[in-house]
Q: What sequence folds into this?
């Protein structure tokens, strides 16, 4: 591989988009080329600085309320709805009741100890921030779950079940161990484009993990998805929007 | 058999689309450069998305679809304001960067990159041409080159070269922020 070709695929390599043969050829080139190695470092630093430091602006609550008021369309905007107003009204009512039930379920997660539930969300975000601060210095910086999971199991007094080993959309970046409130927890780190997603797996006993189905909360600009599976509690944290986080959660069974 | 909500696209699309409000607003803020225009841009984007909800193919990339609407809305607004449909565009305004210097990357540049602070990076991003800024932001959002091509309405190869040139431009701007 020559320098021009190498520099043309540096970003693809950093995004994990190269096929194994091209990635290997690039690595071989980098080992013998100081100029391209510096270029690779510059591209990596630029990405890291953009990810970490470029200010992110969120929509104001007022704007979100205005947007929510726009949806759904006023009755009569869509002709199929206009043709069956009574039936649609009943389905609308049923949907509203279902939504209310969902909200009640979600709130019941917090009900027994609202402070405790909020503390869990806050701790999950804190763990995620600690992971971001570590950057690439994870204790097991490997995309191979067969390396990450045995190491985690050796550090903990339980076997962390992590049912997703990563794929092209959500590659595994590595693992480490963090404290989650009063207990040690396994942490698996996934990527999605330039975003980092932290999965925390801890013993569930003694904490109010959601009893039925996942709960999604937003704190400090991050989305946090909590769920329980058997004796383990799971927290998934990222600045990804809730929809994309749900895609990874589906792969993890949460 | 589709459920009953399926015949009302606006109904099922709404909650999913609203989940992208923050990320769309961030994009709008960097396109427009101020909070007021970003507010208007996002609101108009959702209004257009609502009107076009019936055209959205369920199962396709909703986020890319919304970003495409937002960018097209921005282009319409910008054209209206400038009264000149050709203003802007990486290909027409770029001579801020020559490709040659990017082949050279010394320790001083790497050191400067490491010491940058948020304000410097934001200032440099805002100093980029509009199309360069757009492609940088879309890449940062985690879109693939195919997604970006869909948002911008151009071939994937064009996205690749635009992104490369945009990053070169950004690095060159950042080099000027001496610690």
A:
């Amino acid at each position: 591989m020559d320098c021009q070709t190498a520099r043309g695929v540096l970003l693809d390599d950093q995004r994990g988009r190269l096929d194994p043969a091209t990635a290997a050829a690039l690595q071989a080139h980098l080992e013998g080329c100081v100029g391209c190695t510096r270029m690779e470092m510059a591209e990596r630093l630029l990405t890291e600085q953009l990810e970490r430091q470029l200010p992110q602006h969120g929509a104001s609550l007022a704007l979100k309320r205005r947007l929510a008021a726009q949806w759904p369309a006023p009755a009569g905007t869509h002709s199929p709805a206009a043709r069956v107003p009574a039936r649609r009204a009943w389905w609308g009512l049923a949907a509203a009741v279902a939504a209310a039930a969902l909200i009640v379920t979600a709130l019941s997660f917090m009900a027994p100890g609202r402070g405790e539930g909020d503390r869990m969300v806050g701790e999950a975000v804190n763990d995620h921030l600690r992971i971001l601060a570590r950057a690439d210095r994870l204790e097991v910086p490997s995309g191979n779950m067969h390396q990450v999971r045995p190491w985690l199991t050796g550090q903990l007094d339980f076997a962390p079940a992590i049912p997703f080993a990563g794929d092209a959309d959500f590659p595994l970046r590595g693992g480490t161990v963090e404290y989650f409130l009063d207990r040690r927890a396994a942490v698996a780190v996934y990527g999605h484009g330039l975003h980092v997603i932290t999965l925390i797996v801890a013993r569930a006993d003694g904490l109010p993990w959601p009893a039925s189905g996942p709960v999604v909360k937003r704190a400090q600009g991050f989305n946090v998805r909590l769920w329980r599976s058997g004796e383990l509690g799971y927290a998934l944290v990222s600045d990804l929007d809730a929809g994309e986080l749900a895609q990874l959660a589906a792969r993890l069974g949460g | 058999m589709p459920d009953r909500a399926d015949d009302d696209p606006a109904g099922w699309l709404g909650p999913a689309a609203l989940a992208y409000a923050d990320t769309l607003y961030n994009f709008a803020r960097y396109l427009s450069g101020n909070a007021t225009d970003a507010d208007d841009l996002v609101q108009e984007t959702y209004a257009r998305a609502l009107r076009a909800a019936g055209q959205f193919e369920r199962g396709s990339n909703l986020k890319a679809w919304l970003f495409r609407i937002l960018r097209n809305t921005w282009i319409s607004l910008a054209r209206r304001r400038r009264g000149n449909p050709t203003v802007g565009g990486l290909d027409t305004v770029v001579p801020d960067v020559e490709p040659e210097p990017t082949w050279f990357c010394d320790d001083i540049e790497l050191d400067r990159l490491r010491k940058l602070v948020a304000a410097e990076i934001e200032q440099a991003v805002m100093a980029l041409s509009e199309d360069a800024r757009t492609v940088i932001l879309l890449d940062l959002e985690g879109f693939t080159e195919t997604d970006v091509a869909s948002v911008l309405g151009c071939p994937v190869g064009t996205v690749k070269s635009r992104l490369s040139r945009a990053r070169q431009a950004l690095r060159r701007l950042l080099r000027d922020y001496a610690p």
Notes: Chain A is about 50% helix and 20% strand. The CA atoms of residues 170 and 192 of chain A lie 5 Å apart. Residues 73-94, 100-114 of chain A have pLDDT under 50 and may be disordered. Strands of chain A lie at 172-180, 183-192, 195-203, 215-219, 222-229, 232-238.
